[in-house]
Each structure stands twice: as structure tokens, then as C-alpha cells.
Amino acid sequence: MDALKSIRTLDQDKIDIVNQLLLPHIIEYVQIETIEQAHDAIKSMKIRGAPAIGSLASLSIASTLSSAVKATPRPDFLASPASLEAYIAPKLEYLFTARPTAVNLGAAMRRLAKVLSQAVTAHQQQSEPRVSDTDAAVAIANDIIAEAKLIGGEDKAQNITMSKLGGDWLHKRVGGSRKYLNVLTVCNTGSLATSGYGTALGFITYLHEQGLLERAYYTQTAPYHQGSRLTSLELHTLSIPSTMICDTMVGSLFQHKSMHAVVVGADRIARNGDTANKIGTYNAAVLAARHKIAFIVVAPTSSVDLSIADGSGIPIEHRPPLEACLVRGALHPPSYDAAGHKVQAQVLITPGAVGETEGGVYNPSFDVTPAELITAIVTEKYVAVKREGEASFELLREAEEA
Ligand code: MRU
């Protein structure tokens, strides 16, 4: 069976997303018709995963502009390049504020802003005969649409490339002859988090496709439960042998199973290799180092933020306290509503006051794993390892050499 896609574009202008708050029990598509709805879907985590949120934000811009270009009469903001810029630039800023940690969202919005500002400047500097203001605005809108659609789908091919690069690298590292590898992953990095195949989950899929995987282990990943709700669904859909563990069981797993690697995605990687990823990744890295298990980050080069020297510069999102006090899912034993859907519930697992008391909950959505604990960073262009005796990576050099 094919893995579920987080975003499906029905035609040029219509975007549907799978509401990930309801998975794995209900597959409900939500139509995203406006930029505000895209912002809300990202902020409320109906869609999540670093590449996927960059894709949705970009596609919502494409859809808005595409409808505007086709409308009769056209909206006022298409009267000139300047009015288009005045309308779109704040929307890009606004989408960027939906979630701060993943570099992809900001990078996507900056890419679109660059297309916009360069085209506006080119129009201002053009010599005679001048293109009319309206035609120029429409041409710029079409350029932005093309770039946004590119962003919306370009990571799938990169995911396939990096999964092969990383999978072959690990296979060689363990001696090449070893056939069956056990790996642990954290969070969800598959099709639901990307435009397809996945990063760390792509790596696991590749090992499975090559007949090299014994078993994928994955943490539940509280409090949103990306592992138990989403990674489990994807692994089962792909028929990959897998075992879920609670977040508290990583140390025990490493003590009792022969593990070959921890493989995770990334929301942002600093120049020295320090990596922000889902909360709990750092715990797994510390334990992997203690047990001498390879710790591998798999992410596109667009997740590397060369403007940030180390992890201390990565903004970490803190989610609302109440989210850590609730568990979301279906009733068990199941009961069904009139539409035949399993009834969903959110269960409070703390005294009510905990989520409402100032300082009552600590709920960072991500942590930073220091480069020192990372064995390799795999992108679509390179497998970076540290130089002998060094505690950090040199990702600027890797980028220049790639
Ligand atoms: O809060 P989320 O679910 O958006 O966090 C996602 C992660 O941390 C993923 O591991 C990361 O974005 C990589 S997705 C390919």
C-alpha cells in the first residue's frame, strides 16, 4: 500500500491536507483555501514536519496567486508590481511566524520573497518599451507560483538520494557483510512530514528495500505522539518490521538489543552540526554515545542553516502547556459515530490546574543534540563525518566541496 501523503493538490488551485491531529484513526482531508488557513493548520499542527510545513506555506501562496491571476476582474493587488509586493510580502512574513524552529518554513518564504523583490526591481529598471504594470504583476505572480510549486515537491527526490547515500554508508560502516540492521528513530519523518519517501524514515525504508533491515524501533514521542500515531501508521503501511517503545525505554532497548544506529531527521542544523530535532532526540543521542551506537542525522541541505554557528542560535518553539497535559486518540474499546468513524477523545492526564498554572509545565517542542554526539550528517549531497579528534562538523566546507 502507498504511504499517505500529507498534501494533495487536486487541481491548480486546490490544496487538501490530511488532518494529522486525527491520525491514525480517521483519515480526514481538510481543504486549505486561504493563507490564513494554511497558517492555522501549521500552527495547530494539523500538518507538521519541517519540509511539509514549508511546502504547505508555499503552496498556499501559489494557490492564492493562481486564483487571482485567473479571476475576472483581477484583484487590485495585481494592478502593478508594487501593489503585488505590498500584498504578498507581509503574507510571507506572516506564514513564517507560524512555527519558528524548522528552518524550511523561513527558507521557503525567503525564497519566494527573493523571486518577488528581484522581479519588482527588474521591472523598475527596465528600459523602453515598458511592459504594462498589470502584465508585469501577472508575470511576477506566475514566477512566484512556479517557485512555490517547486518548493512544494522538490524534497521527495532529495529524500530518495539521501536515503540511499546514508543507507549504503551505514551498511559499509558495519562491515558490509552484516545483513540485518536494527535501528531506532524518533518522531515522524516519513511521507506525512515531507513531500514523499521521508528523511530518517526514508533511510529505514531504503534499508528495508535492500533487505538489510531487521527491525525499526521508534519512540512514541510524547506529547504529540508523532511516533505512536504517525510513524507506526507509515511503517505498517509499508510493511516494515517495527516495534514501538515508550520514550522512557530507550536506555533499556540499548542494554538489551543489538542496535546498529539511531536515525533521526532535523528541523535545523547549525554550521557546526548541532542539530535541533523533536524533543527526546538529545536523550537518545546521549544514550547512543554511552552504548557506542552510531547516531545519524538525515536531512536535506535546506535544513542546514549556515548562518547559525552553533545550536545556541537555534530558536526553540515552546508549545502551549495544555498540549503536554492531554493525550489524543480514539476511545478504547472503540465506539463509532453516525458516520462510522471511531470516536476521538482528548484525555487530561494531569490535575486540571497543571496546564493553567504559571510555570506548571515545561513543553519545548524540540531539543538540540550537540555535534559531539552525532556520528554522521547525511544530506542529498554528502555524508559528513567529523575529522579525527574534532567535536564538530564543518558544514560550510561540506557545502562548498559538494
Ligand atoms: O513538531 P513536528 O512534528 O513538526 O516535528 C517534526 C520533527 O521534529 C521531525 O523529526 C523533523 O521535522 C524532520 S521531518 C522530515
Tell me the major beta sheet. 7 strands, mixed
How far apart the termini lie comes to 35 Å
User: Taking all residues together, what is the mean pLDDT?
Assistant: 95
* Biggest sheet: strand arrangement: 6-5-4-7-10-15-16
* Assembly category: single chain
Compressed to H and E, one letter per element, the order equals EEEHHHHHHEHEHEHEEEHEEEEEEEH
Ligand species: 5-S-methyl-1-O-phosphono-5-thio-D-ribulose
Shape: globular
Strand proportion, as a percent range, falls in: 15-25%
Helical residue percent band: 25-40%
Structural class: alpha/beta
Give the number of helices.
11
Catalytic activity: 5-(methylsulfanyl)-alpha-D-ribose 1-phosphate = 5-(methylsulfanyl)-D-ribulose 1-phosphate
Pathway: Amino-acid biosynthesis; L-methionine biosynthesis via salvage pathway; L-methionine from S-methyl-5-thio-alpha-D-ribose 1-phosphate: step 1/6
Keywords: Amino-acid biosynthesis, Cytoplasm, Initiation factor, Isomerase, Methionine biosynthesis, Nucleus, Protein biosynthesis
Organism: Boletus edulis BED1
